[in-house]
Model the fold of this input.
Amino acid sequence: MKIIHPSFEILHPVTQQEWIKEAKLIELAARNCYKSEDKITDDSYKTMIKMLIEKDHMAMIEFGNFVCRIITDRGITHELVRHRLASYAQESTRYCNYGKDKFGKEITVVAPSGVTNGSTNALSWETSCMTAEQQYFKMLEEGFSPQIARSVLPTCLKTEIIMKCNFRELLHIFKMRCSPAAHPDIRKTFLDIRQVCRGYLPEVFE
Done:
């Protein structure tokens, strides 16, 4: 059994130029409404986006697009996919057989918040995960398919999910998942994602 921590990779936009291109699409869409395309300059998107957000004209913000790969546990993805105005592609426990060589013949789990290395609670958590792994492999040996054997796998099983959404929905996700009321693990991940987004495009994400 392998234990990892959550991580993410922004797939699009990646470079500063790509972020600006998304911002300029927002500006172009907005100026199409006013037929003021002649006022577009290299950095006019900054004032345009600021004005759109101040006026709560958020439909235009939907023209910016975002794609991210998130490595986390399946409990977190159960919460994430509740954001319906997004597209998701997730690692499938129906078709992934963790008894195969490509997975190292082991399951991978994500250490949750509150589990401290070397503590009693860490031992209890690890023992539970190892028991689940043993029973999963036993079911595979007995001829069960991965989609049936997965029923004994823990919620903290590692998964990879690719999320695609527009900037407006991403702002909503940040509002919900960066809140102190959010689950601590999803909150940590999206606080980190938001920080990266702010660094590239503060006009939208500040």
In short: The chain has a mean pLDDT of 96. The helical segments are 16-34, 44-54, 74-80, 120-141, 146-149, 167-177, 184-200, 202-205.
